[in-house]
Amino acid sequence: xxxxxxxxxxxxxxxxxxxxxxxxxxxxxxxxxxxxxxxxxxxxxxxxxxxxxxxxxxxxxxxxxxxxxxxxxxxxxxxxxxxxxxxxxxxxxxxxxx
Amino acid sequence: xxxxxxxxxxxxxxxxxxxxxxxxxxxxxxxxxxxxxxxxxxxxxxxxxxxxxxxxxxxxxxxxxxxxxxxxxxxxxxxxxxxxxxxxxxxxxxxxxxxxxxxxxxxxxxxxxxxxxxxxxxxxxxxxxxxxxxxxxxxxxxxxxxxxxxxxxxxxxxxxxxxxxxxxxxxxxxxxxxxxxxxxxxxxxxxxxxxxxxxxxxxxxxxxxxxxxxxxxxxxxxxxxxxxxxxxxxxxxxxxxxxxxxxxxxxxxxxxxxxxxxxxxxxxxxxxxxxxxxxxxxxxxxxxxxxxxxxxxxxxxxxxxxxxxxxxxxxxxxxxxxxxxxxxxxxxxxxxxxxxxxxxxxxxxxxxxxxxxxxxxxxxxxxxxxxxxxxxxxxxxxxxxxxxxxxxxxxxxxxxxxxxxxxxxxxxxxxxxxxxxxxxxxxxxxxxxxxxxxxxxxxxxxxxxxxxxxxxxxxxxxxxxxxxxxxxxxxxxxxxxxxxxxxxxxxxxxxxxxxxxxxxxxxxxxxxxxxxxxxxxxxxxxxxxxxxxxxxxxxxxxxxxxxxxxxxxxxxxxxxxxxxxxxxxxxxxxxxxxxxxxxxxxxxxxxxxxxxxxxxxxxxxxxxxxxxxxxxxxxxxxxxxxxxx
Lengths: 98, 629
Hints:
- The structure holds 2 protein chains of 2 kinds.
- Chain A is built from 2 helices and 5 strands.
- Chain A has a single domain (2-92), classed as Dynein light chain 2a, cytoplasmic (Beta-Lactamase), CATH 3.30.450.
- Chain A has helices spanning 2-12, 36-60, and strands spanning 16-23, 28-31, 69-72, 77-82, 86-92.
- A 5-stranded antiparallel sheet of chain A has the order 2-1-5-4-3, with helices on both faces.
- Chain B has a domain at 148-488: YVTN repeat-like/Quinoprotein amine dehydrogenase (Methylamine Dehydrogenase, Chain H), CATH 2.130.10.10.
- Helix content of chain B is 27%, strand content 24%.
- Chain B is built from 8 helices and 28 strands.
- Chain B has helices spanning 35-38, 90-101, 104-126, 350-353, 490-521, 525-548, 554-579, 583-628; strands spanning 148-155, 162-168, 175-181, 196-200, 209-211, 217-222, 229-234, 239-243, 252-253, 264-269, 277-282, 286-291, 300-303, 318-323, 330-335, 340-344, 354-358, 365-370, 377-382, 385-390, 399-400, 408-413, 420-425, 429-434, 444-447, 453-458, 464-469, 473-479.
- Chain B is flat.
- Residues 524-532, 579-584 and 593-629 of chain B have low confidence and may be disordered.
- At the A-B interface, α1, β1, α2, β4 and β5 of A face α2 and α3 of B.
């Protein structure tokens, strides 16, 4: 219920293309993308990357932890919010407002 | 000969026991050697003798095992699902998902994460945090000091060889073809390798490809139209070409009889429809044109003969060739004696083929290149200076550098900025000159190597410079941004500089001609000498005064005339004592000086104007240069 609400609210923001909730072992729980392949691809790739980023931050400073991961590419931006068990992944197209 | 000894015994004594007694030796016969007998014999040399040792040989066959290759594809399947859930079964997947969603943790986690995420999304929507600031502001001339950095060093695996020539791969700065050769006259040890290499810029440990000519290569060029073809000139006068795809051996080599008789110092590809023509020059004085498809004989031949008669015995050997693909029929060659020949390949008569000969340098000309953006201006490197020439002015260079401490070995213009050129010296330094910044000294001097630098080559984009040293080490140097960033006003400024210098030379040429004409007109002997002398002195004094008093007017002229008359009187007095001439001569001289003074006064306003025009233009050019720097 609240989950639904949160999810819908995120999707309603300007420029957001899609969102995925991923479990810690890479299974997409909730996805807004229509095609399954896209979802699976995002899950697999981004989950690994987030894991690597988290371990990098922790290796550099054991007291530190990854709070947020942003990948800005030419066409869009992938934002990853990690937590111990799940991962929230949002793809947004940036607005080039001067 | 029979040896006889007669022995007698009485019959009655037969049967009697022998009684032996000693007696001294007696010479029975003495046979001396007879030298005449030797004549019947002939000495035998050699004597054939049979010997019984034979090398054992055996023959073997080897066959490797067959290596089998197989093409496979990989199929990625969806993973991560726990063991009891089959990813393909939609129902199971849905059931699993529903189960997870009921988990408490899940709900709270998603809510927190959602909050964080929204914050960032809103951030993105508010401002583009990755925006490029100042992207539309033009990059001014770089503020950082000019610098150059060595990026990579390629060492020749064999000793004793220097880098004779470097050629960059035409399709980008990824490969280099380097020709190695020991160019000291007959000083290369006998088993020096003849190989030259193509290096990949990223891998300085081992060359990408080896080229194996018959004799060491002195120059090597990529075909600008077909990046797989390379042509090279050998130390023994042959020319050969390779195809990178086909291996290390040359596809074809020219014949020794029809080619050059001295090392082929430079080979350049010609602009032709087939893209297979090239021409080469050597110290035997010939320029030969080749079609690589038929290397047996050159297509055309030209002798670099300054007397314009195509006389082979007068031909001067040349070290460098210059060719601009946009002017296909003309080319230039720099000779060993220092002259620069400008030639037209399509000249109808022999005299037409050599269009002009520039005086050049005191020693051999080592490099010759036209400015890529101002084709009428070219530079030449030789003896201890670099000279810049304009094609129209044939008597002297329009600009030159001072004499350096060490000899210059190679030079080239920058491909991007028309005011920048590079030179390499025998003390191992690379000089970068920027005419807009400083004209007396190089803008940057980089000590590239401890050994003399023999050759250099700028890559097309203008950023990377490859320098080759005498020890066989090729270094790639990256230049700082100031040297390859284009500047909008640069073309105009450089144009002004060159035009100003060209005009100055033209004026000097015109003056020379006038002086010569006047000398011829002056009549015979002593009068002419004195006249000439006074003319010379007047001209010098006037040149100085013109320079300082460009703005002054007629008053100065009158003062000058007075001075001349005084000088003339003094001269005439001393000259008169020496030459035993009377007062009449003095008066004649005075008259002539006055006439001369008037003539020059007529000429001088023109010269003054020209000098006046030149001086402010110079000042303007300098101030603009100072602003931009």
